[in-house]
Amino acid sequence: MSRIGKLPVRIPQGVKVGTTDNLITVEGPKGKLTQDYKPEVSIEVKENKVIVGVTNDSKKANAYHGLYRQLINNMITGVSTGFTRSLLVNGVGYRVEVKGDILFLNLGYSTQIEYYINKDVTISCEGTNKIIVAGIDKQKVGQACAEIRSLRPPEPYKGKGIKYEEETLRRKIGKSGIK
Hints:
Blueprint: H1 3-6, E1 9-10, E2 16-20, E3 23-28, E4 31-36, E5 41-46, E6 49-54, H2 59-80, E7 83-90, E8 95-99, E9 102-106, E10 113-116, E11 121-126, E12 130-135, H3 138-149, E13 161-164
Antiparallel strand pairs: 1-6, 2-3, 3-4, 5-6, 7-12, 7-13, 8-9, 9-10, 11-12
């Protein structure tokens, strides 16, 4: 059995959790999320806790045990508080700006890049070099951040590019010029 899967998920005030035929629904003040689950896993809601169990002792069932417990925990956290990630843009002349549902990025290329914002996430800018991605679905927030970062990943010599705010870059020393 999974160590993480054994832990019950606490349901905070104002969040409703329901299960029907291999589908779990979590509804809270920020929105509603649904997730289907495999028949190897059993999910039951008791009082203010969600308990995830296994239906058989197979290796596959044990693998799904911890996975679905954590997915449910992320769903409950998302609809109650939400998720945010911050990206920093570093480089001379690099700028970002949000207009409507389009994120405009000047990243040193010959043209300006337009990133169309998915309806499931919200993107805002603080100044011209900080991007904040927020939403209720952790996977979609992370995917949007990864797509934006992939437009100009940070390089190790000068640190130019887009990086996560909590990310630390390993900097390299350039050419020494001495033979």
